[in-house]
Design a protein that fits this description.
This protein is α+β, with helices and mostly antiparallel strands and 713 residues long. It is built from ten helices and 46 strands. The chain is 13% helix and 32% strand. The longest helix is centred in the middle third of the chain and has 13 residues.
């Protein structure tokens, strides 16, 4: 295929652009110019106001002065900025394509993800067909010509008299490297975005925040059906307390939020009392790819404030998780429990903190959020800090300073710099020593922590025990505190999967399937990339259920720091905009925890709107708790499908290729009633696409996704 990049001024024809008076005007597509325009063509270079072979535009003897001549397969993407109202053209096979025995093509017009018009098969000698389609609300217009018979010989295709009616902004070629916001701006009307199901163990403290978006100037909350012992704060929307009845059962509660000026929203909440809790994937933030080992209490407080101030909390993001680097010494006054280092607690502002994390956890809770912490069953953590076991029963370690002081970034990094995991002999730290986590779990509960991430190499038999026993002990220690504490296991559960699947879903709320992720698109075999991780987890689907989820690692979206770097150097993610949409969509389909690790104080509009699409998030938080699996794959496209609690399906159509391409999705294999039409909704644009039967036709941008919800009518 050839790529035409030409400034229209070369042809001496000035562009016709809409005026600034707000009145709609026509933009002729042969005159589109924003420095250049690009068309992908199957042969030769597409030409402006000429057929692809250089002759005048002619369809069945009808001559056209204006238009674009190209050759199938051909694609042109135009950015309309949502300001256009109509697209008009006359299309057909050019008369000089070589006769009626060749030149079989089909023209298609797509608006965003929806097929707006198609010509059917057209041959040389057929009369031109007229296009006149509505573009209201459309951001991207995709013009595609395909070969109808599989043979592209002499498929000379003309977009004659092609023009767009628009106002206010120029029509230009799509720049796939430029951010494009597709999530509609939230309205003022209140909307409840918190999960529809919440679990609690009998006798445990209950804490549920009703997440609400919309205008917040005058909100009040109501409920109907709360079990005895729970109370709703009508001003904050936080439900808390202890359910008096310890029977394992479910309660259906009606939640309502009211705004005098902007209306009402309501939602049913199922409260499920039983052994399982955290029944939907965790949503929150983790410090690792942001501050790494340099994390401080002030950093944590800033990110917690930003989660609320940015509005992320209004869309369900709840957890603020402190990763590796917080650990100080064990304290004999606290039964040898692990304490924080000098960057936490009273005096942390001057680097002389007393290591008490109770203050920062309380700060997080007062914002209506939850708090998480990090540890390891090993003697030392991956970043070189103290873990939850020791060399000696009394909580001490032999020759604890196992690396030279000048080989440490932090004073309490007693096992060497980050990444210096594997030592030998006296330097080794990657083993489970004398168990101290029972003491640490009690300390975490005293600090009122809500999540613990336990990080080591799952399934790697060490000196004293195995991973099954370690996980069981961790779960038992957490449960014995009397507090519902989420257990997040890490990492690399895919290594030895046949063993991990027997214990991880039994003890953990989520388990990391992979090693560390990086902000690269990658390919299906690159284990640290978005593609390599996201599309290779089907084997976990049978293990996933409400309260037990496969963790595909942290989201690589926004402004990120550098892991294992104590002086964080913040840079925007290397993922292109379409790749970020695909990344977030895929993690939602997988029911993976949605853990941000970017700097929440530095989010642009694109990042914030991407992360706060409530219809997309709802796929992740669906109460059925199932994981998507591969539905179809052909090398260029990969389709993931996920059953939903309402009987519908969430489907992601991913384009792994470098060019925008059409895709036809057969609907018969989605286990829906084949005799009924289905309703399809574009989740990113929050727009109904219409009724369909047997198939759904769309176009997917390079490295992009079309994320839809399919329900029987």
């Amino acid at each position: 295929m050839s790529l035409l990049v030409c400034c229209v001024y070369i042809f001496g024809f000035p562009p016709v652009l809409p005026g600034d008076n707000g009145k709609p005007e026509y933009v002729w597509l042969d005159a589109v110019c924003d420095g250049d325009f690009t068309i992908i063509s199957g042969w030769n270079q597409p030409l402006r106001n000429l057929a692809v072979n250089g002759s005048p535009l002619s369809i069945n003897g009808q001559r056209f002065e204006r238009g674009i001549g190209t050759h199938a397969p051909s694609y042109w993407g135009l950015d309309l900025a949502g300001r256009a109202t109509r697209f008009q053209a006359a299309v057909g096979v050019d008369d000089r394509s070589g006769g009626s025995t060749v030149g079989d093509v089909e023209f298609r017009v797509y608006g965003d993800a929806k097929l707006l018009w198609k010509s059917g098969t057209m041959r040389a000698g057929d009369a031109a067909k007229t296009i006149d389609v509505d573009l209201t609300g459309i951001q991207h217009l995709h013009l595609y010509v395909g070969t109808a018979d599989g043979d592209q010989a002499s498929d000379h295709a003309n977009w004659a008299d092609a023009r767009v009616l628009t106002k206010g902004k120029t029509v230009k070629a799509i720049d796939f490297d430029a951010p494009c916001i597709v999530t509609p701006k939230p309205g003022a009307k209140p909307r409840i975005n918190s999960p529809a199901i919440f679990g609690v163990r009998p006798g445990s403290y209950f804490n549920y925040r009703i997440a609400v978006s919309g205008d917040k100037s005058d909100l009040s909350f109501k409920e109907k059906g709360l079990p005895r012992g729970l109370k709703l704060d009508k001003d904050t929307g936080i439900i808390s307390g202890v359910i008096k009845d310890r029977t394992k059962r479910s309660y259906m509660v009606e939640l309502k939020v009211l705004s005098r000026a902007f209306g009402v929203d309501q939602k049913m909440l199922e409260i499920r009392v039983g052994e399982d809790f955290q029944l939907t994937p965790v949503m929150g933030w983790n410090s690792w790819y942001n501050y790494s080992t340099a994390i401080t209490e002030e950093n944590v407080r800033a990110q917690a404030r930003a989660m609320v101030d940015s509005g992320l909390a209004d869309h369900g993001f709840t957890f603020i998780n402190i990763d590796d680097g917080w650990q100080g010494a064990r304290d004999s006054a606290n039964k040898n429990a692990l304490q924080g280092n000098e960057r936490f607690g009273k005096g942390h502002e001057t680097g002389t903190g007393d290591g008490d994390l109770g203050g920062v956890v309380d700060f997080i809770h007062k914002l209506g959020l939850k708090a998480g912490i990090y540890s390891s069953p090993w003697v030392g953590t991956f970043a070189g800090f103290r873990g939850s076991s020791t060399d000696n029963p009394d909580g001490t370690n032999d020759n604890e300073l196992r690396w030279p002081a000048d080989d440490m970034d932090h004073r309490t990094q007693v096992f060497g710099k980050s990444g210096a995991v594997w030592g030998t002999g006296a330097k080794a730290k990657d083993y489970v020593g004398h168990w101290q986590f029972d003491k640490d779990a009690l300390q975490f509960a005293r600090w009122r922590l809500d999540l613990v991430k336990m990080d080591w190499h799952l399934n790697r038999n060490d000196r004293r025990t195995d991973s099954d026993t370690v996980c069981r002990r961790i779960r038992e220690n957490l449960d014995s505190t009397g507090r519902d504490i989420v257990l997040s296991l890490s990492n690399n559960a895919n290594s030895g999967y046949q063993f991990t699947r027997t214990y991880a879903p039994k003890y953990a709320n989520c388990w990391r399937a992979t090693g560390d992720i990086y902000d690269e698109w990658g390919d299906i075999i690159k284990a640290t990339s978005i593609v390599g991780i996201g599309f290779n987890q089907d084997h976990w689907a049978s293990s996933v259920s409400s309260g037990h989820f496969m963790d595909a690692d942290m989201l690589q979206i926004g402004v990120l720091g550098v892991p294992n770097n104590p002086a964080a150097d913040f840079k925007p993610t290397r993922l292109k905009p379409n790749e970020q949409y695909s990344h977030f969509s895929l993690w939602c389909l997988l029911s993976s925890p949605l853990i941000l690790t970017n700097d929440l104080t530095k989010m642009d509009k694109f990042t914030l709107r991407l992360l706060t699409n409530d219809e997309v998030i709802a796929i992740n938080q669906d109460s059925l708790g199932m994981q998507a699996t591969r539905y179809r794959s052909d090398g260029k496209f990969l389709v993931m499908a996920k059953p939903l609690a309402d009987g519908g399906r969430a489907v992601g159509i991913f384009n792994l290729g470098e060019q925008a391409c059409p895709y036809e999705l057969p609907l018969g294999d989605l286990e829906l009633d084949p005799c009924k039409k289905v309703l399809i909704r574009d989740l990113w644009r929050q727009r109904d696409l219409g009724e369909f039967q047997r198939k759904f036709e769309t176009i997917v941008e390079p490295h992009g996704v079309v994320l839809i919800k399919v329900n029987t009518k």
